[in-house]
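User: I'm preparing a small set of examples for a lab meeting where we compare how different chains pack in three dimensions. I only have the primary sequence for this one, and I'd like the structure in token form so I can line it up with the others. Please keep the answer compact; I'll paste it straight into my notes.
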Amino acid sequence: MAQQTTQPDAQSPQPLLHAISIDDLRPTQMTVGMREVERKRADWRGLAPTKTGSFLGRHMIPVVRGPKNRYYVVDHHHLARALHEEGVKQILISPVADLRALEKDEFWTFMDNRGWMHPFDSDGQRQTRAELPKTIADLQDDPYRSLAGELRFAGGYAKDTTPFSEFLWADALRRRVDTKTAKGDAETALVKALEFAKSPAAAYLPGWCGPHART
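Assistant: Understood. Below is the structure token output for the 215-residue chain.
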């Protein structure tokens, strides 16, 4: 794949076309929903060979450039994992910030305060930044993140720009759908999730599109 690189401004990075190894991407979250990953894998396999290049061009992975010139993924973890599982070696990135000048502690404080990291495990418990996986291949499955993705796909809520909005839904569902159902009965889990999503109890969540009470 041809590579074209431009230098972004440290304060306001410009879009660039830059291909790097998927193995060089550093996650900023601990989990993905593997059912969502599998759906994206199927979408990739459904592409004609002549379309894969344009697909990658339309789905660049947003990253923050951090200390030691590492690339930290701030969105599209599921797509990156799906492409990795499909044997794709190189991926296109688009930097959203250049923080290479920061010391490690300052970098992670900034990332946390900016909402660019989500160090919560598959039980929804916050962990230290040291527990973040080092590669895309190390991301663990969270069935509630899968359920949250399926809920949005089913129209339970709208896509929202709030950072890690799907994880906010996943955490809410974790408290309302039992683990056995979430892991072993996807259909029933989705029914329960939709009931919650359309209720006023979910109104605090990003992208909520339930009925509004008349005043």
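A couple of notes for your slides: The chain has two domains: 18-141, 143-202. The chain has eight helices and seven strands.

User: Perfect, thanks.
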